[in-house]
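Let us work through a complete example step by step.
Step 1: write down the sequence.
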Amino acid sequence: MQHQPSMKKRMAIMAERDAAIQERNLALLEKKAALGERDMAILQRDSAIAERNNAIMERDNAIATSPIQGELSNTGRTQ
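Step 2: predict the structure and record it as tokens.
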């Protein structure tokens, strides 16, 4: 017949298991927070790229519609 662990021993095993689960859950929460920060940084980078691209398009549009560009086009020269 096998000897059953005492109630005290079973409680210690359960407490150890619970502590390990809590540690794992904390690690998962930290990983989730880090991924959230990474995603936010990516969104900020994408927003900055979009702003830069809009500024470039506005600049190109201003150049294309400027009187100087029109004069250069009329003379057959390009900028």
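Step 3: interpret the result. The chain has one domain: 7-74.
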